[in-house]
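In the design runs reported in the main text, the only information available to the sequence generator was the tokenized backbone. The following block is the verbatim input for one such run; it is reproduced so that readers can re-run the procedure and compare outputs position by position.
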């Protein structure tokens, strides 16, 4: 009987994140599927042309990652009511989403980051108008750039809304018996 009890005690699984296989060797347990921020960042950076971000990138990757995480964090606010997945389940220390995203969802997030970038540019231009005055701004820069930013903002909002609708209405898990 003592031998059986020893076997049961010896076979009990550990609850730690690491499983010890030998005295000197430890193996990490399998991680849940996740998506790295880098996947979304690449899509975002390929969709814009920014000398400012290029200059930040030359200063170091850490500073660029901070800026990109800021755009991502603001972009995620647009998906609070997104019901296909919990896009707000992120780990900023590891630089990843705690869920696995489809390529379509990555593209959707990259567009939302681009929208945040456009809003940032638009805000900067509006501050410029206030700082130098309407007449001087019109003479130097013109309102065309600000109008283009507003047009791009409207277009991106529309595209993101359509993408979210396609995912949610095309997902039988979301619609249940209505699908």
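Verbatim output:
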């Amino acid at each position: 009987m003592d031998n059986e009890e020893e076997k049961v005690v010896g076979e009990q699984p550990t609850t730690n994140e690491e499983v010890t296989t030998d005295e000197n060797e430890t193996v990490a347990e399998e991680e849940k599927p996740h998506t790295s921020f880098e996947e979304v960042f690449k899509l975002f950076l390929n969709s814009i042309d920014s000398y400012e971000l290029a200059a930040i990138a030359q200063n170091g990757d850490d500073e660029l990652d901070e800026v990109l995480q800021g755009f991502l964090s603001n972009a995620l606010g647009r998906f609070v009511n997104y019901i296909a997945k919990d896009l707000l389940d992120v780990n900023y220390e590891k630089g990843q989403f705690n869920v696995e995203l489809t390529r379509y969802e990555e593209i959707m997030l990259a567009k939302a980051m681009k929208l945040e970038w456009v809003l940032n540019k638009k805000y900067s231009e509006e501050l410029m108008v206030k700082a130098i005055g309407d007449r001087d701004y019109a003479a130097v820069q013109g309102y065309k750039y600000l109008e283009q930013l507003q047009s791009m903002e409207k277009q991106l909002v529309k595209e993101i809304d359509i993408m979210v609708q396609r995912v949610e209405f095309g997902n039988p898990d979301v619609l249940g018996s209505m699908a």
